Amino acid sequence: MLRAHPVEAIRAAERPLIEAAAAAGDPDAVMRRAASGVAHHTAALLRRRTGGVYGRSVMLLVGSGDNGGDALYSGAVLRGRGCRVEAVLLDPERVHGRALQALRGAGGRVAAAGTGTDSSTPDVVIDGVVGLAGSGPLREPAAATVAALAGAGVPFVAVDLPSGVDADTGTVHEAHVRADVTVTFGALRRAHLLASPTCGRVEVVDIGLADMGSEPLTVLRPDPAEVGRAWPVPGPDDDKYTQGVVAVRAGSARFPGAAVLCASAAVAATSGMVRYVGSGSTDVLAGRPEVVCHPSVAEAGTAQAWVVGPGAGTGTEAVADIDAILARGRPTVLDADALTCVAGHPVVLRSASAPVLLTPHAGEFDRLTGGRDRTDRSGALRRYVADLRDRGIPATVLLKGRVTLVDDGETTWSIDPGSSWAATAGSGDVLSGVAGALLANGLGCGGEVAWPAVAAAVAHGEAARVAAGRTGGAGAPIGAGDLLRALPSAISALRGA
Ligand SMILES: NC(=O)C1=CN([C@@H]2O[C@H](COP(=O)(O)OP(=O)(O)OC[C@H]3O[C@@H](n4cnc5c(N)ncnc54)[C@H](OP(=O)(O)O)[C@@H]3O)[C@@H](O)[C@H]2O)[C@@H](O)CC1
Ligand SMILES: Nc1ncnc2c1ncn2[C@@H]1O[C@H](COP(=O)(O)OP(=O)(O)O)[C@@H](O)[C@H]1O
């Protein structure tokens, strides 16, 4: 499991190291250690991209703080390895003096932004514009310089964080660096897990930082192997009931496919039993004859968990069904149309005595929250969960997207499947089916609802990867049906990871 920390915790952990270095008369010792890591990973990128390091050209974008200092020291190391290094000073009046001297001493070239920089395109750019202290989008002249280099296809190595990405919220501002590699120091920052697609490959350099624990603002990323180990496997004494029965209320005349996708995903996720309530019984049974269908919520037998919402409608009947399902007092996944119902009739959640898992996409989340604070996703999510819990609703929320977040009011989990192939219509219905089956099974380990939600998101991402890669090569677009069919292979791959 990966852990990513808020800036305040990182600064507090770094402080003793920096103070010890200063007391020993070498105030930049930690910075040089960090910089040699940046140089090492930049050299590795150069080797991958160009076949070597010697003679390659490196541009440093140098901001006004210690992040710029790291870039300058790393430039000095790369000069020593035979690179041509040019530092572009974005604020020549405020630059780390000793690091600049080190670069000059090593034979690096220095220019102020916008004045007489080397006209040829570099092989790599080291982004030392701004790190932990960054706020807001890249400012000029950095914004224009970064845009021109990115437009020319030059790879970026970000020092600590891609500039223009907020370290704590992971907000990716409009003007920002998209890094191929991000080299950070001692421990991950929250943005590395909240904005992982913008960070590229994240390398953590050991600077002697002590191990950091967890606190409420730590973001966690599950290890796929851990999810695989926790996946429910029937034992010798198990039968269909002991593994958990999940009931699915999904589908309508307008959206029959949602019923099929959701119920079939629940069947694929565990070996327990799936009940179905809705107008799509014929379609569901055509694909999955093992599903047990019921004419209404009231007539459905016992289930350990419920899923309600995919394609299920938003009228008064749908709201009444949500109410009736929540009144059964079982863990319940509320997805899709059920979330629209909750947004319109928040009072319906009052019937929830057992844990509920809400699984909105960005639009549904806006509907639920009135669209407040679209930039700080994780902050808005934590506030929404806290609001629900303050109202006595035992809620966990899974916020969908390329980076899916799960928050139970105490812990934020982040899942990034590494590609966006899952962004296809109906794939959310598959996710809620898997989550419901895991909830019914009572998948333990790390939180009664958060962990099944996390595990479902990991399996869903893996299924998208398997489905998109089924032809080998670079991958191909998939539909939700392909993702559904890839679930068994994905679960098997996780269990073998
Ligand atoms: N000390 C050490 O030994 C070690 C330090 N480490 C390194 O130090 C880094 C933190 O350094 P730092 O605290 O000096 O701040 P840093 O992130 O460089 O920002 C500098 C200034 O930039 C400005 N600014 C803000 N936003 C901006 C924007 N959007 N666009 C442009 N400018 C913007 C803002 O000043 P302002 O202009 O607002 O007055 C801000 O104060 C850390 O990330 C790691 O790399 C590691 O080496 C480990 C050892
Ligand atoms: N850019 C993306 N990259 C990867 N996965 C994504 C992306 N956008 C959405 N997803 C995933 O695809 C699924 C879409 O769910 P949803 O929007 O509810 O679709 P639908 O309602 O059509 O079923 C979610 O699991 C979500 O996390």
TrEMBL record:
Subunit relationships: Homotetramer.
Name of the protein this chain belongs to: Bifunctional NAD(P)H-hydrate repair enzyme
Organism for this UniProt entry: Dietzia cercidiphylli
Keyword RNA-binding: no
Binding site for AMP: 400-404, 428
Domain YjeF C-terminal: 223-494
Keywords for this protein: ATP-binding, Isomerase, Lyase, Metal-binding, Multifunctional enzyme, NAD, NADP, Nucleotide-binding, Potassium
Family that this chain belongs to: Belongs to the NnrE/AIBP family. Belongs to the NnrD/CARKD family.
Catalytic reaction annotation: (6R)-NADHX = (6S)-NADHX; (6R)-NADPHX = (6S)-NADPHX; (6S)-NADPHX + ADP = AMP + phosphate + NADPH + H(+); (6S)-NADHX + ADP = AMP + phosphate + NADH + H(+)
Entry annotated with the keyword Lipid biosynthesis: no
UniProt binding sites for K(+): 67, 127, 163
Recorded name of the encoding gene: nnrD
SUPFAM superfamilies in UniProt: Ribokinase-like, YjeF N-terminal domain-like
Function per UniProt: Bifunctional enzyme that catalyzes the epimerization of the S- and R-forms of NAD(P)HX and the dehydration of the S-form of NAD(P)HX at the expense of ADP, which is converted to AMP. This allows the repair of both epimers of NAD(P)HX, a damaged form of NAD(P)H that is a result of enzymatic or heat-dependent hydration. Catalyzes the dehydration of the S-form of NAD(P)HX at the expense of ADP, which is converted to AMP. Together with NAD(P)HX epimerase, which catalyzes the epimerization of the S- and R-forms, the enzyme allows the repair of both epimers of NAD(P)HX, a damaged form of NAD(P)H that is a result of enzymatic or heat-dependent hydration.
EC number: 4.2.1.136, 5.1.99.6
Domain YjeF N-terminal: 10-215
